[in-house]
Amino acid sequence: MLSTSRPWGCRASLCRLEGDRSSRFLAMLRFVNICLVLALVALAYVIYEVKYQSRALDEDIAGLRNEIETERDAVAVLRAEWSLLNRPERIERLAKKHLNLGPPRPNQLVTLDTVSDSDFERARTEAAHQTLAAPAASAPEPAAPTTPAPAKTVATAEEKPLPPVTVSPPGQ
User: Fold this and answer.
1) Alpha carbon distance 27, 34 (integer Å)
2) CA nearest 169: which of 60, 107, 87?
3) What is the rounded distance in angstroms from the CA atom of residue 81 to the CA atom of residue 107?
4) Splitting the chain (172 residues) into consecutive groups of 10 residues, what average pLDDT does each group show?
5) How many Å separate Cα 70 from the centre of its chain?
6) Most-buried pick from 31, 54, 72, 134 (CB within 10 A)?
7) What share of the chain is helix, strand, coil (3-state, %, to 5)?
């Protein structure tokens, strides 16, 4: 028959101790299980976020690749245009049309050791006298006094020494 009274002796205290331990053990297991479930939910959320961030980055990369391809095409067009504009015959034709240059005279050829500021001043005054004298000799006298138009000067090597022109497309 079963008795509801407390058992006597060591055995009773051991059973009581085991009961306390098992309830603590079950409570600790419940706490660990809850923590693991929460960690699993947090990990699922993080993976979800990383997945969508990586998709957004993939779309950005695809857009940048398209932009790079568009820019490469534009650069190719600009290089073709550059080579068309830098044809020597075109540059020579434009120089004859717009620069109004004459053949060099022997007094225009100097070395760097012999050039001084007075040479530049002398060349400027000679060019100004030549351009003023040429239109006055060929043009008839005006009937009414007018203010003279600014003189058109001929560019010479003494006025502005130009560096040699080398034309190449950018990036080469």
Assistant:
1) 11
2) 87
3) 40
4) 53 59 86 96 97 97 97 97 94 88 80 79 84 60 47 46 52 50
5) 15
6) 134
7) 65, 0, 35
